[in-house]
Amino acid sequence: MPRPNPHRTIGAEDRMRANVLRILDEQDRSVAWLARQMVEAGCAVEGTAVWKSLKQGRRIAVDEALAISDVLGVRLTELL
Questions:
Q1: What's the pTM?
Q2: Which of 32, 51, 67, 70 is most buried, with most CB under 10 Å away?
Q3: 40 to 23, 37, 56: CA distances (angstroms)
């Protein structure tokens, strides 16, 4: 019988989501603005994907995380 998979998360993505939303709020920016800026920065991502990442728990790819940190002007470690 296969062993059950243990819960393998330390909550980093949840913290990142919360931090991104907090920074957007502090900068008076929207998720739609972030998505547009990410595309302009070279990260081809749909606005709905960014919204789902921040609001519905969609996984955040490493390239997306780097683009988010660049657009918001913070280090990736500050988002984590």
A1: 0.84
A2: 67
A3: 19, 5, 24
